[in-house]
Write a structure and sequence with these properties.
The structure holds 2 protein chains of 2 kinds.
Chain A (H helix, E strand, L loop, with lengths): L34 H16 L4 H15 L4 E8 L4 E9 L7 H9 L7 H9 L3 E3 L9 H8 L4 E9 L2 E10 L7 H36 L3 E6 L4 E4 L1 H7 L3 H4 L11 H18 L1 E9 L5 E13 L2 E12 L1 H19 L3 E6 L6 E4 L1 H7 L3 H4 L15 H11 L4 E8 L5 E12 L5 E10 L1 H19 L3 E5 L5 E4 L1 H7 L3 H4 L16 H11 L1 E8 L7 E11 L6 E9 L1 H19 L3 E6 L4 E4 L1 H7 L3 H4 L4 H4 L6 H15 L1 E9 L5 E12 L5 E10 L1 H19 L3 E5 L5 E4 L1 H7 L3 H4 L4 H6 L3 H18 L1 E9 L5 E12 L5 E10 L1 H24 L2 E6 L5 E3 L1 H7 L9 H6 L6 H5 L10 E10 L5 E12 L5 E10 L1 H54 L4 H27 L8 E4 H15 L4 E7 L6 E4 L1 H19 L4 E12 L1 H7 L6 E10 L29 H11 L3 E4 L7 E8 L12
Helix pairs in contact in A: 1-2, 1-6, 2-6, 3-5, 32-33, 33-37, 34-35, 35-37
Chain B lengths: L2 E5 L3 H13 L3 E5 L2 H10 L4 E5 L7 H11 L4 E6 L7 H10 L2 E6 L4 H12 L7
Parallel strand pairs in B: 1-2, 1-3, 3-4, 4-5
The chains are: A alpha+beta, B alpha/beta.
Chain lengths: 1208, 128
């Protein structure tokens, strides 16, 4: 807010925007009030103040006077509201009628001013007058703006004071801007004080008036009395209560109103002393009031000192508490009731948190909490006692809807015990209908609930029980019945009620109603059997019990009838009796066993069968009764499932009677089931079948034996018809059993042919008549037409009286055995033939018995033939002495088991010839591991032995041949490499010779190299020859020609004491397919060797050529490795020392020599050997020569040579 | 100038033959074995091939077959070391059938080889 410059004045002439000019500078006489004027104001105001009259009028007049005297247009008085500490309008205005100040007034009246707000607020705040020269400058203040709008351009405010307190502000407004008038302000400041005094008085007056009004308004009766108790004033309530006018009250003693004089006196005597002493008294007084009724008042009498009253006075205040007392009494009674009631009561506040305001003792007792633990607490703190809290919410919601609520909850007491609590709640509303509290009544209904449940259960039991229950009047009218009864009589329950029970009962079956009633009266009940007549026309027998009870509601006697339907039971009992009679009389031993197999009942026959008394038998189990050797479990294992499946089982058991006798029983078991089809046991009917069983077993055994027989058995009746047969019969004769039974035996044996049948009759039947039994072999016809050989035994069976009663035919198929016999014979013959063909002879020697046998082959071998005899010991004498140990070892080291004998030895025959014998056989022993018997074969193996020797020779040759080939390959390889080495030597030597024609010395050297190389070449050639690396070029060559050629060469080089001759067999072919050169060399080598062998000594070398045919035999005997055929034989022999047999095998080996190291290459005979082999011929050293050496060379003859060839 | 290919695994023998053949105005090439010779033939076809029989890698017979197989037209003179294996006769027959101009046996007189080669180059079969 803009600061009000209270000290400044404003010139009305001053133009807007010009600086205001201070008071001192503007002696504006027109604005100044004269002292007289001011004095008028004082006078006028003082006059007004002095005038008697209503304070408000005076103040209004003062306001008007001041306004007018200040030349103001409008005056107004603000009053300070001390309680609110703000300025409020007093409503006292002086208004210029010409101005429209409605809005300004309205604003003023509706707005209280705070301290320092607007002009008047500032006056209050500053506690001195304030002048506003121009409202245009104060427009920020709402009131100033309103004043300006109303045409009030300037004004001032003066404080109204009393005893230094600002009581209000007097305002005056001008229609034009006006400068401050200091004198006026000072004057009015003083007047403000005067006005304050008036205002103060006015206020006191107002207060008194208000108090009086209040006193008149209150319900209490108030009276003012002097010290003597004389009433001098009272309020309206006093008058209306007592029904008196004020005139009748004033001046009277207060106690006069207390009723009759004795009571007044009593009060005065009793209480006045207290008043005097304490200065006050309070008590309840009852006295009659306007309508004559007595009412009780709460009276207070207070002494007070009043400056206006010399003796002081009394203020009597009375409040009619009659209603309160009534209410209090009512409350007291209610409380007592609440506290006394067994109903547990709890009151809670309706508003959350629902504080508990009351809990009666019953409630405390019911829950076990003290009041102090409950009251003041929230309802929520109790919530844990109940099993569910739903009811709390329901209770609150119901109460809010102004409804009651009821429920039953399970509640836990403080001690933890639990009970059923029925809670009923109601809302409590106050006078205005607002919900303030909720009251709940709790009841322990545990017992009730139990009872209800019990009743419910009983009702259910009655309803569901099988027995019929009827409640009727004593005369029989049915009041109620259960479903069982309705069903029993076959009528709907609703239809039964109200009818008489007698109509459902057969009168003849029951005592008369009077007898029944008498019985009930005397004994409390009547029991008996009655026959009910249901609607379907049947009859039901019921066991009935009638009792009388008193209906708790109607107090009438009623009859309760309980009827039990025993119709079926009676039937069953009849039936059982019948059955019992039956059981007693049956011959079979009957056992009734429970599901565990324990006997629970039996009849006399059973006791007799098992040998036990009935008491002993009952309680025994099947296992006890079974014979110890009998596997009763196995039987049961089989029987029980059958029993369960079919309800019945029949079989045999072995049991042991009490006396130890074992018997066989046939048992027939029937399963027992109860109504729910549950297995409860079984009934056995047993019969002693020991004897029957024995016979059956025997018969079965016989039948089995018969079936097992490997012989056909057929039994015939006297008519010759087959009445029994065994399996073998079917097998042998090829019929089905059905076909055989009833067939004539002759048909079975002899087929359909009547002649044969007759023959059989003759043979068998007649034959057996006399002797009783006949055995023969015959051929019979099977059903399939095949014939078989059968050995038949036909017997006639006679009984004790020698009467013929049956016949038996035993037959055995001997077809196979006949065949087998034949087979055996054949085998024997075959074996003999084989042995004969093998050339072996049989020998047999009984070691223990000394018996021996020699086959003809062996006997022939000895050369003695049959005359040798069978004595095998003689054989030993012929054995070569060297071989005797071998022979004797045959039977040595016999270990008790079969042992093969195999040995070879030489035998010296009758002619002295040595024959090799091989003996093979086996030794057979006995149980004592003794050698009992030897048997075997002996062969002459001389030829084989010889052949073996030849074979050995052959192998030796073969080895030689392989050795030669290996050496040849080796030598050939060396020769090849040598040729490679020689080639450059020889080649370059030739070149050197060519290039050194002018140098004879060098030429000579070259020739020496060439010569040496060529000798080497020759040597290699020879190696290649024996190693067959050089293939002969074979043409028809006359060997004899070569022989003579060589002969002449050798002769030339041989010393004179050696003669060389060449011969041939005349007219024999000597042409061979041969390489002449190689043969020439071979022969040269042979002759050279002979020459060397003679070694300058006298001797001769002979060469002979002839032809020979080499047969297979000759080849084998001479061990020649050539094909059989025609050969030219070239023989070279000398008379030298011969070849040492020791080295005979090695002479053809290459490099083998007997000569000194430098005298031979050792290749001579190797080359010969190589050449001959390469020709497909052979060379042998003739060992049959007594002195010297002879080689024979066989070369394949030329096939074209037709000249005779001598067979070798 | 006739071209000649000398095939032998012995360098000494090749050296000897080179001297002899070059004196007779042959243009001489050498090969250490049949495989090498065959490779040479594929590059430069000689008029005459003078070959040993027994050589490593590819022997003389195989060389003959391989050259014939390639359709190369050249004459063969064969040198034999004497060892032709288990059946020399059949080998010799085989060689003859393959159009061999001559067979010389080691060790030989060089003149003998030269004559055979000259005849081969002049396509004059040995009438002996």
């Amino acid at each position: 807010m803009q600061t009000l410059e209270s000290t400044e004045t404003e010139d009305v002439t001053q133009l807007p925007g010009e600086m205001p000019i201070g008071r001192s500078g503007h002696p504006a006489a027109a604005n100044l009030k004269s002292s007289a004027q001011l004095l008028d104001i004082f006078k006028s105001v003082n006059r007004l103040l002095a005038e008697p009259g209503d304070h408000q009028d005076i103040i209004s007049a003062v306001v008007k006077e001041i306004t007018l005297l200040s030349d103001g247009a409008i005056g107004h008085l603000y009053l300070r509201d001390q309680s609110e500490d703000q300025l409020l309008t007093s409503g006292i205005w002086h208004l210029d009628e010409r101005l429209d100040t409605t809005a300004f007034q309205s604003l003023t009246e509706n707005t209280a001013l705070e301290r320092a707000q607007c002009m008047s607020g500032n006056v209050w705040d500053a506690d001195k007058p304030i002048w506003i020269s121009d409202h245009e400058k104060e427009l920020e203040c709402q009131r100033a703006r309103a004043a300006n709008d109303a045409g009030l351009k300037s004004g001032f405010g003066v404080p109204v004071r009393s005893s230094g307190n600002i009581l209000g502000v007097l305002e005056v407004f001008y229609k034009t801007p006006r400068e401050q008038d200091h004198e006026l302000m000072d004057c009015l400041d003083s007047i403000g004080v005067q006005l304050g005094g008036l205002l103060s008085e006015y206020r006191a007056q107002c207060l008194t008036a208000r108090h009086t009004k209040i006193v008149d308004q209150v319900h209490e009766i108030i009276a003012l009395a002097d010290s003597d108790g004389c009433i001098f004033d009272c309020n309206s309530s006093f008058l209306t209560t007592l029904g008196l006018r004020k005139e009748r009250v004033i001046g009277r003693q207060a106690r006069d109103f207390l009723g009759p004089p004795p009571e007044q006196e009593a009060f005065r005597n009793k209480n006045m002393a207290d008043l005097e002493r304490d200065g006050s008294w309070r008590g309840e007084l009852t006295f009659p009031v306007a309508d004559g009724s007595l009412r009780t008042f709460d009276i207070s009498v207070v002494k007070y000192e009043d400056s206006s009253m010399l003796a002081g006075g009394r203020i009597i205040v009375g409040r009619d508490i009659t209603e309160n007392l009534n209410a209090r009494e009512s409350l007291r009674l209610n409380s007592a009731a609440l506290n006394a009631t067994k109903s547990a009561v709890l009151i809670v506040e309706a508003l959350s948190p629902h504080k508990i305001v009351f809990a009666n003792p019953s409630f405390q007792k019911m829950l076990g909490y003290k009041s102090s633990e409950l009251v003041g607490d929230c309802l929520a703190s109790l919530s844990h006692v109940d099993d569910n809290q739903m009811h709390l919410r329901n209770m609150l919601e119901s109460s809010e809807r102004d409804q009651s609520y009821q429920t039953v909850v399970q509640t836990k007491r403080k001690d933890g015990s639990v009970f059923m609590r029925k809670i009923a709640t109601s809302p409590i509303n106050n006078a205005t209908g607002q919900l303030t509290h909720i009251i709940s009544f709790s009841e322990d209904v545990t017992e009730d609930q139990k009872r209800d449940e019990l009743l419910q259960r009983q009702a259910t039991v009655i309803e569901t029980m099988a027995d019929a229950v009827v409640v009727s009047e004593p005369r029989g009218v049915i009041l109620d019945c259960n479903e069982a009864y309705a069903q029993l009589v076959g009528i709907d329950r609703e239809a039964i009620i109200g009818t008489n029970a007698a109509q459902y009962t057969s009168e003849s079956s029951i005592d008369s109603p009077q007898v029944i009633l008498d019985a009930i009266k005397s004994r409390g009940e009547w029991t008996g059997e009655a026959i009910l007549l249901p609607r379907d026309g049947s009859e039901r027998v019921v066991e009935t019990r009638l009792t009388a009870i008193t209906d708790p509601e109607t107090k009438n006697d009623v009859i309760v009838t309980v009827a039990h339907d025993v119709t079926e039971q009676r039937k069953m009992e009849d039936h059982l009796q019948f059955q019992a009679a039956l059981v007693k009389n049956i011959k079979e031993a009957m056992l009734v066993q429970n599901r565990d197999g324990i006997v629970i009942d039996c009849n006399d026959a059973a006791c007799e069968l098992y040998g036990y008394a009935r008491e002993e038998l009952i309680g025994m189990g099947s296992r006890h009764l079974a014979h110890p050797d009998f596997d009763v479990d196995a039987v049961f294992e089989n029987a029980v499932p059958i029993l369960h499946e079919h309800g019945h089982w029949t079989g045999e058991l072995e049991i042991q009677r009490k006396d130890g006798v074992r018997i066989t029983i046939e048992t027939s078991s029937t399963i027992l089931r109860d109504r729910s089809d549950k297995f409860i046991g079984w009934v056995e009917l047993n019969r002693d079948v020991t004897e029957r069983s024995r016979i059956e077993n025997m018969r079965r055994l016989q039948a089995m034996v018969m079936q097992q027989l490997d012989e056909s058995v057929v039994v015939l009746n006297l008519q010759g018809e087959i009445i029994e047969c065994n399996a073998k019969s079917l097998d042998i004769y090829g019929y089905e059993r059905d076909e055989l039974i009833g067939m004539k035996a002759v048909t079975m044996v002899a087929g359909a042919d009547s002649d044969e049948q007759e023959a059989f009759r003759q043979l068998a039947i007649r034959g057996a008549k006399d002797s009783g039994s006949l055995r023969f072999t015959t051929t019979v016809h099977r059903k399939d037409g095949r014939t078989i050989d059968v050995e038949v035994t036909y017997s006639v069976l006679r009984d004790d009286k020698d009467e013929e009663f049956a016949r038996v035919i035993l037959s055995k198929d001997v077809t196979e055995s006949k065949k087998a016999k034949q087979e055996l014979e054949n085998t024997r013959k075959r074996l003999e033939a084989v042995i004969e063909a093998s050339g072996a002879g049989i020998w047999e020697q009984g070691v223990v018995t000394g018996h021996s046998y020699m086959g003809p082959v062996l006997k022939d071998l000895t050369g003695y033939g049959d005359s040798f005899g069978d004595d095998i010991s003689r054989w030993r004498t012929l054995i070569h002495p060297d071989d005797l140990p071998t022979y004797d070892a045959r039977f040595k080291d016999w270990d008790g088991r079969k042992k093969r004998v195999d040995c070879e030895y030489r035998l010296i025959t009758k002619t002295g010839e040595i024959r090799w014998v091989r003996s093979r056989g086996q030794i057979v022993g006995n149980d004592k591991q003794e050698m009992v018997w030897g048997v075997g074969l002996g062969w002459d193996i001389t030829d084989e032995k010889n052949k073996d020797l030849q074979q050995e020779e052959l192998e030796k040759r073969l080895m030689q041949s392989q050795k030669m080939e290996t050496l040849g390959t080796l030598a050939g390889g060396i020769a090849h490499d040598f040729n490679n080495v020689l080639t450059p030597i020889l080649g370059f030597a030739h070149l050197m010779k060519l290039d050194s024609e002018d140098e004879p010395t060098l030429q000579g050297y070259s020739e020496q190299i060439i010569g040496g190389a060529e000798r080497a070449r020759e040597l290699i050639k020879r190696i290649l020859t024996f190693s067959r690396q050089i293939e002969p070029t074979r043409t028809a060559t006359d060997i004899y020609d070569i022989a003579t050629e060589v002969s002449s060469l050798i002769t030339a080089s041989a010393p004179p004491q050696v003669s060389v001759s060449t011969t041939r067999t005349l007219d024999q072919a000597t042409l061979a397919m041969a390489d002449a050169g190689q043969i020439h060399q071979a022969l040269m080598n042979l002759c050279t060797n002979s020459l060397h062998a003679l070694d300058q000594t006298r001797g001769s070398i002979g060469i002979h050529v002839d032809a020979a045919i080499i047969s297979q035999y000759a080849r084998d005997s001479m061990n020649l490795q050539i094909e059989p055929g025609r050969y030219i034989r070239l023989s070279v022999e000398d008379t030298g020392p011969g070849i040492d047999p020791e080295i005979a095998d090695r002479i053809f080996d290459p490099f083998f020599t007997t000569k000194a190291v430098d005298q031979g290459t050792g290749l001579g005979l190797s080359v010969v050997h190589g050449v001959v082999e390469a020709h497909g011929g052979a060379i042998v050293l003739d060992k049959n020569i007594e002195q010297g050496t002879r080689f024979k060379v066989y070369l394949p003859a030329c096939p074209d040579d037709t000249r005779a060839i001598q067979p070798s | 100038m006739p071209k000649i290919l000398v095939v032998d695994d012995e360098p000494d023998i090749r050296a000897l033959l080179r001297i002899v053949l070059e004196r007779a105005s042959f243009v001489v090439s050498e090969a250490g074995d049949g495989a090498e010779a065959l490779a040479h033939c594929k590059q430069d076809i000689p008029d005459v091939i003078l070959t040993d029989l027994l050589m490593p890698n590819m022997n003389g017979i195989e060389l003959l077959e391989a050259v014939a197989g390639l359709g190369i037209d050249c004459k063969f003179v064969v040198m034999s070391g004497g060892n032709l294996g288990s059946d020399p006769t059949s080998e010799i027959d085989k060689i003859s059938k393959m159009g061999v101009f001559g067979v010389v046996h080691k060790p030989f007189d060089p003149i003998e080889v030269l004559n055979a080669c000259v005849r081969a180059a002049a396509n004059e079969p040995d009438t002996q």
